[in-house]
Amino acid sequence: MTTIIRIILICFIIFPCNINGERRRCMNTGVLFTDKIIHSPIIVYGEPLAKEIYVDTDMELLFNVTFRVDCIFKGQEDIVNRINITEAGIKMNRSACQWLDPGKFYVVFLEKCESNMNVYCPLDFQERIVDDMTYELLEKTCHLTRIPSLHSTSNNCPNVSMTEFCPNDEIDVKIIPKQKQTEYVQPNIRTSFNNANQFYVQSNGTISNDKPLVARIADNPHGHASLSACISLWILIIAVGATIFF
C-alpha cells in the first residue's frame, strides 16, 4: 500500500514539473508598462484575427498573427487596419514571449521588419491584455497618440494620455534602441498614481509597489506552473514523511 501511495505522489509532482519545464522560458520579465512605452517605436491596440504556428520545437514556439489594428498609440500614422506580426512567441535569445490569442484585445509593442511593408516583429516585451486596469493605465500614461489605423471604418480608440494627467504632453519622448533597454533610465518622466495597484516612475529609478501573489499570477498567467510544482513538492515531502513515521 505504501508503494502505491508513493507512485501516485510521484506522478502527481511530475505533471506540473513538465508544464514548468515547457514554459520556464516564458517568464514575467518585470518590465513596467511605462518602460515599454518609452522603448517601443510602434505601439498598437487591437485584436488578433488568426494565429499560425510555424516553429514548434523544444527550444522555440513561433507563430504568425493576422492582427486588426483599431488604434495607433505610438509610431507611424500609415499603419493599415490589418497587419501581419511574425516571429511572435517563445524565441531563443529573447527574454519575453508573446501569446496573442485570438478573441482578446491587446496592447502590442512592435518594430518594423525589414522584409515587407506590412510585416511587423514584436519587441522583447510581452503584450498587455486589455482590461480595466489597462484602460486606466492608458489614460494616465503620457505621450501616447490616439490615431485610428489606415482604412479603418470606425474609431475604436480608447482614451489615452488624458489632459488632467498629462498637462505637458507636448514634450517629446526619446525612442531608445532595444539594445539599450536594460541600461536606460528616463530621468524626466514622473508618473504618479493614487492606489496600491499602480506604480511610480521617479528620477532615481523605477519603484514598483508590491502586489499580492494572485495579482502577480494574473499579470503573467502562464507562469503559474512554477507555483504548482512548488506546492506539489511540499505535498510530496509531507506525504513521504507521513508514510515513514506513521
Automatic annotation (TrEMBL):
Transmembrane regions: 225-245
Key words of the record: Membrane, Signal, Transmembrane, Transmembrane helix
Signal peptide residues on this chain, from the entry's feature table: 1-21
Organism: Adineta steineri
Source organism superkingdom: Eukaryota
Keyword Transmembrane belongs to the record: yes
Name under which the protein is recorded: Uncharacterized protein
